[in-house]
Amino acid sequence: MLTPLAIGCATARTLRVQTRSGRVSVGSDQLALLAAGGQALTLLVGEGLVEPIILVSGYDGYIALGSTCTHLGCRVRPGRGAIICPCHGSTYNLQGAVTRGPAQRALTRYPVSIDSHGGISVVLSPEAAEGSE
Questions:
Q1: DSSP 22-72
Q2: In the chain, pLDDT over 90 holds for what percent of residues?
Q3: What pLDDT score was predicted for residue 34?
Q4: Is the N or the C terminus of the chain less surrounded, counting Cβ atoms within 10 Å?
């Protein structure tokens, strides 16, 4: 179920997903909500992962980012055109690169692949990534 969340001036959505074999899948019907470039969907992942995943729709595909700030581990949130850490003000662009500190490192990126039905799969574990090659 998708839930709108007010985040600053932007609207983000959350989707609760379950892991299966080190991956999470998002169906094409759910991805339709991200059709416009630059929108974000936060995946609340079931057991086996400590952080939600921020799925960003860009003009050249989807990017899956970890939601843990690389400064002190606070939970970052998608905002209008950026990903923001509410604790100390670090900001990241929608590709996960730091645009303002104090964070020094980019957000974790997770591999994304498109499935045969137009949905996507996000690889969460090294074992799942090995199985996809």
A1: TEEEE-HHHHGGG-STTEEEEEEE-TT-SS-EEEEEETTEEEEEE-B-TTT
A2: 30
A3: 67
A4: C
